[in-house]
């Protein structure tokens, strides 16, 4: 299940004594842990109410003992097993485990008796005990311990998300509800499109940026506009980078060059700016090529890796403003700029030349 489903179950009172929170996105694991603890301790909890165990060195017998111990100072015995490598996925194409670090030797394998005790415990947990296993990475569903746990546990997989997926909208709407804010369509598009310039969306970082935005607005102001968004998040390279690309799409040479220079004034590394331009040109070129082949709507989105319908519609419109030759030349020139930047031979005027050519050579 995903974080949203886990939260829904908790709100409905569907509470398990066993949880496995796994995935590459640490943000989801953190939020899931917070939601579980808030449900178990609605009035708040103290440090002594929760035990933290190191899963990289925890044996089956030790875990069984912790679970079976009756709590003295709390009505619940809650154990969080961090770095639960006993669920760690195997390498692709091999039956061997990933090689652990010296301090991360395989666990839950002290002896067969210990393992069997643990599996029986999964099926018959004490009413007072709750265990939250956490693993940064993919859990291996083929392992016996996973199969035994899954019979009684709630399992959440927190995969990283990319802005071209609709998942970013799900996260954003959830965060806006948490902050008691709304976002107008222009601001929403602006933020999501800017995030498409990232390979993956760093949710932990974006969570803090949204918190900062909320503090800036105060409790009375509810609607997030594009102007407020840009004002607060202007130190994000992706925001100015997207604004620059948007100006190029509108063939506004003056604004595009201003934003190019503005990024440099803010200390954005030239290779980052070149990368933003490459992303934009490649996307325009791919979209134009696929459109010429007759692809539209969903088929077009799949071909260029963009499922967000609003952004896809805008890309479809914007790419019509460039000739294929202009995009091809810009792509090749940016490749030369990238090489020049990496070898210390780049004149920034070369990048400005690419921007000017894109803005001026309308279809």
Task: Report on the architecture of this protein.
- The protein has 363 residues and is of the alpha/beta class.
- It folds into three domains: 3-157, 3-Layer(aba) Sandwich (Rossmann fold); 161-233, Orthogonal Bundle (Helicase, Ruva Protein, domain 3); 241-363, Zinc Finger, Delta Prime, domain 3.
- Helix content is 55%, strand content 9%.
- It is built from 16 helices and seven strands.
- A five-stranded parallel β-sheet has the order 2-3-4-1-5, sandwiched between helices. It has a two-stranded parallel sheet with strand order 6-7.
- Strand 2 (50-54), helix 3 and strand 3 form a beta-alpha-beta unit.
- The longest helix is centred in the last third of the chain and has 23 residues, at 270-292.
- The radius of gyration is 25 Å and the shape is elongated.
- The chain starts with a helix and ends with a helix.
- The model is unreliable at 97-107 (pLDDT under 50).
Q: What is the third-level CATH name, the topology of the largest domain?
A: Rossmann fold
Largest sheet: 5 strands, parallel
**Spatial shape:** elongated
Q: What's the assembly state of these chains?
A: single chain
Low-confidence stretches: 97-107
Task: Tally the structural domains.
Answer: 3
